[in-house]
Amino acid sequence: MDWYEPKFKSNETIENCNECGVCYYICPQTEPLIKLLDEQYSVKDKIGNIENVIAAKTTQEKIEEIGQDGGIVTTSLVYLFEKNLIDAAIVSLYDEELKPEPHIIFDKEELFKAAGTRYSISSQILPLKELYNLSLEIQEEKGIYDIDQLRIAFVGTPCQARAIRKMQYLSIKPAHVIKYLFSLFCFENFDYYKLYEILEKETNVPAENIKKTTIKKNFFVYTKQDEKHEVNIKKLDPAVRNHCHSCDEFTGRYADISVGSSGAPKGYSMIITRTSIGQDIVNLLLSSNYISQYIVPVNERQEWKQKKMNLFNRMVKLKK
Predict the structure, then answer these.
(1) Are 269 and 56 in contact (CB under 8 A)?
(2) Are 134 and 71 within one domain?
(3) What pTM was estimated for this model as a whole?
(4) Which of 57, 100, 265, 273 could be disulfide-bonded to 279 (CB atoms 3.0-4.6 Å)?
(5) Phi/psi of residue 93, nearest 5 degrees
(6) Do 252 and 300 lie in a common domain?
(7) Is residue 13 part of a domain?
(8) DSSP 8-class letter at 138
(9) What is the CATH number of the domain that holds 71?
(10) What is the pLDDT of residues 76-86, one digit of tens each?
(11) Is residue 265 reached through a cis peptide bond, with omega within 30 degrees of 0 on the bond before it?
(12) Same domain, residue pair 166 and 197
């Protein structure tokens, strides 16, 4: 991709490159490991292996107030922290202008700053390289005595989930500390600066005055004054990242759990479980009443599930 200049390319990274090829192999857009991953994760089509598909929403009042749609990812991470199943999570936080920033968080209270969806890319894999450089203060405060024994949940886009699985397949540290992998549905992502430049032009609302954004066919902007603006999604095409034009992912077929709003009833999220790890977590969330499942009549369940599968397949085909 001669036209692409990597965001973190510098004279230092060029000088330190020993041409080992690792960056090529773990890049989500390269092919060498895909067949091996497909075999490992039972992927037979563009949707991937599916243990189950349900719609659900959080039962946690605080998350319901601040989360996106069903609040499933935030609720899942709260559960994992509260049950001592993870030591940390890699999530996307954002500043006062909604610019996403990847962070490692070590307790559930920090999760509430991460709730909701941002539609510009957050480089979720970057925090991994900081793990071995954690300050002694943080290690002592959090009781971290061996970085390699950490248990981390990772939340990212389908392409980021694919990169993590490639790293794990090649035993590249510290990807081995990721125990739970959540993928968000992603049709396309936007360059932050281009996106908010267009949004301000269309709505006269600067980024620092935006409270929330959502995509429901069109792009919706909610201001801190509780005003609502609708922007035709096609007007955002100039802000779409180039990589997204060649991506064949939508639901995140290499994750443990995939979550998104597409196809979900209002106020709910769709949950696709792909591995036994993912299914176990969803079962625990339901049995512990952290989330509630959307009830589909027994005689309609097979048809309901097939409709969702058809929708996901259509979304993937639309990306081509």
Answers:
(1) yes
(2) yes
(3) 0.88
(4) 273
(5) -100, 180
(6) yes
(7) no
(8) H
(9) 3.40.640
(10) 999 999 999 99
(11) no
(12) no
Residues 139 and 218 both lie in one domain: no
Q: 27-40 b/e with 16+ CB inside 10 Å = b?
A: bbeeeebeeebbee
Q: What is the pLDDT of residues 28-54, one digit of tens each?
A: 888 889 999 999 999 999 899 999 999
Residue among 227, 199, 185 nearest 69 (CA): 185
Overall average pLDDT of the 169-184 stretch: 94
Lowest mean pLDDT among 110-119, 148-157, 184-193: 110-119
Beta bridge partners, 101, equal: 93
Question: Is there a single domain that holds both residue 179 and residue 39?
Answer: yes
- Do 164 and 255 contact (CB within 8 A), yes or no? no
* Chosen domain end from 240, 256, 271: 240
Structure tokens at 122: 């957050």
Residue 7 lies inside a defined structural domain of this protein: no
Hunting for tokens 């248990």 — which residue is that? 151
Q: How many CA atoms lie within 13 A of 71 on its CB side?
A: 23
- Cβ atoms within 10 Å, residue 106: 20
Domain boundary (240, 265, 281) is at 240
- φ, ψ at 278 (rounded to 5°): -65, -45
93 belongs to a structural domain: yes
- Helix intervals (H) in the chain: 11-16, 22-26, 34-40, 61-66, 72-82, 136-142, 158-169, 192-203, 276-287, 301-318
Pairing of strands 257-260, 269-273: antiparallel
The pair of structure tokens assigned to 74 is 């935030």
